[in-house]
Amino acid sequence: MIRFLTCVVLVVALVWFGTTVRLGNRTMFGHLRAIWSTDEAQEMKRGVEQSARPMVERVKRGVEAGVREASKDDAGRPAAEPPKAEREDRDLSVDRPAEARKPERKSRHHRDHRDSH
């Protein structure tokens, strides 16, 4: 708990420092924004995007293949939808209308007004 509070205090202090304390004619975040908007930084960003694109595509294909494999049953076939009764036993609210999922709540004023008649 102490470690968490220390981290929160440090983050708040960094944000405060970065937004309020002037370092020359700009704050720390102002300097970072100015640096990031230079042509060199934008060129570096484009280069990183181009060089990382093949890796991102491989990861995306791997995740999609993993999802397909995980959704198959034990025999290697795509998993079938469980029977409706089984879904209801697991308390999934997908097939139930909104009225059945959430009971209607009357406001306190509405209840008091109704009781006074």
Question: What topology does this entry show?
Answer:
Elements: H1 2-20, E1 22-23, E2 26-27, H2 28-36, H3 39-70, H4 84-89, H5 98-101, H6 108-115
Antiparallel strand pairs: 1-2
Describe what is shown at a glance.
This protein has 117 residues and is mainly alpha-helical. The chain contains six helices and two strands.
Tally of DSSP β-strands: 2
Radius of gyration: 28 Å
β-strand amount: under 5%
Shape: flat
- Secondary structural class: mainly alpha
Distance between the termini: 53 Å
What is the N-to-C order of secondary-structure elements (H for helix, E for strand)? HEEHHHHH
Low-confidence residue ranges: 92-96
Sheet with most strands: 2 strands, antiparallel
Number of helices: 6
Q: Helix share of residues?
A: 55-70%
Major beta sheet, strand line-up? 1-2
Give the overall average pLDDT. Answer: 79
